[in-house]
Design brief:
Strand content: 25-35%
Number of helices: 3
Largest sheet: 3 strands, antiparallel
Strand order of the largest sheet: 2-1-8
Low-confidence stretches: none
Number of strands: 10
Structural class: alpha+beta
Shape: extended
Mean pLDDT: 78
Number of domains: 3
Order of helices and strands: HHHEEEEEEEEEE
Distance between the termini: 28 Å
Oligomer: single chain
């Protein structure tokens, strides 16, 4: 019981401290207090539920497990909102801005007014910094003339969709299931 009381005590202290620092109008403070009072009533009468199992967490873990394996996929690349290319592929597309190292680094900053640590961009091993992009790398499998195949990295600026089963683009430009087995399936568990 005592452990449950401590978070409420901390919350009350923070609210009192925040009110003492508040330079807003009396009307704004009154409205804020009314909202806080209402939230307290909700919290007391409708506390958050606690669950012993999360199907969403389980499903996401299964997706991570599938991504850590070399799975066959079929990737569709779009241009101007329309599918323009489909290829059998390995794994799921990798966003171009995915990196192997942390994009930020801490640097000690000393100054008369602003001493302390600051976060600055960190260079990638190739000497470049990351940016934002919708570009994607796709490992397409090409069938070679005379037989055999090879895996080639395809760079895509437009959007890309990856499927764990064969797909194709029909004559109307629509992506359709081409039949065949899926390389990945998720077991959605039902637990009450």
């Amino acid at each position: 019981m005592r452990k449950a009381f401590i978070p409420w005590l901390i919350l009350a202290f923070l609210l009192l401290f925040a009110q003492s620092c508040d330079s807003s109008s009396p009307q704004t403070s009154t409205e804020s207090n009314q909202v806080d009072d209402q939230q307290t009533i909700y919290s007391n009468n409708q506390p958050l539920h606690k669950y012993d199992y999360s199907p969403e967490r389980d499903e996401l873990q299964q997706i991570y497990d599938a991504r850590m394996k070399v799975v066959n996929t079929w990737t569709v690349i779009y241009s101007m909102g329309k599918p323009v290319f489909v290829c059998p592929s390995k794994g799921y597309p990798i966003p171009y801005t995915t990196q192997l190292t942390n994009p930020d680094q801490m640097q000690e900053h000393s100054g008369e007014y602003n001493g302390g640590n600051v976060v600055i961009p960190q260079a990638e091993p190739n000497g470049l910094y990351t940016g934002t992009s919708t570009a994607t790398w796709v490992l397409c499998i090409r069938t070679l003339p005379g037989g055999g195949s090879e895996i080639d990295p395809v760079y895509s600026e437009p959007d890309a969709l990856a499927f764990p089963y064969p797909v194709k683009i029909d004559d109307n430009g629509t992506i359709v299931d081409a039949g065949g087995n899926s390389s990945v399936s998720i077991n959605v568990k039902s637990k009450s």
